[in-house]
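Re: 3-methyl-2-oxobutanoic acid structure - here you go.
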Amino acid sequence: MYTQLQLRGSARPPVTVATLGRMKAEGEKIASITCYDASYAALVDEADADVVLVGDSLGMVIQGHDTTVPVTLDDVIYHCRAVARGLSRPFLMADMPFMTYTSPDVALQNAMRLMQEGGAKMVKLEGGASQVAIVEFLAGHDIAVCAHLGLKPQSVHKTGGFRVQGREEAVADQMRRDAKSLQDAGADVVLLECIPAQLGKEITADLHVPVIGIGAGPDTDGQILVLYDVLDITPGRKPRFVQNFMTGHDSPLAGIQAYVQAVRSRAYPTAEHCF
Ligand code: KIV
């Protein structure tokens, strides 16, 4: 069984939670990207990304909604299953959509579906201290969990929009405490979105689990971007942390490879991408 898991279609063994922990310990940057279908998954695999997220950002970039709120569990499962077919080495993470983790039991049932039907190896959920019991329950059932802090897109109607989080000391302090609590509850990865670079650096140094950032500065253990931003497909005004990796490249594969290499070599993000 292990042989099949490790060798399926890849010369290198698949990325696991243990791989991510080792990368943090050795200071190797974790190159992560979102993906929503099998064809792009094959490119992301060939570009050698470490982590692939089937994000609920699919509600915005695939379905055309203004927020991620309308995305359903079935939507994520559908896209996750397609992505899983295109991947061999990267670690596959899937988002738990809005209101799919309202209690430990609901979260467990839905995480189970993401893994069994979608092929996800880790589930990601948004939230701070209020999600500690859920993370603990999932981790207690041996489900790998990523806790998403900072800007939480599922909460935009409550928080008032897509804004940088943690500029005020009280909010930053709460985020530091939440990150620790979620790690202690069993989260295997923490994802930080849209926070000041200094806070990203401090939380990363404080935690023993890997921290992946998006708009969280250069010092997190890894970076993640939305595939369609990497390829400059997303129309309209871009967030400050986005870089168009198609510049100077003539194929989606070359653009994704440029992103992966830029994360690994620490060429991305630079000061211009930070808050
Ligand atoms: O849904 C998503 O794509 C995400 C990333 C922005 C991290 O959560």
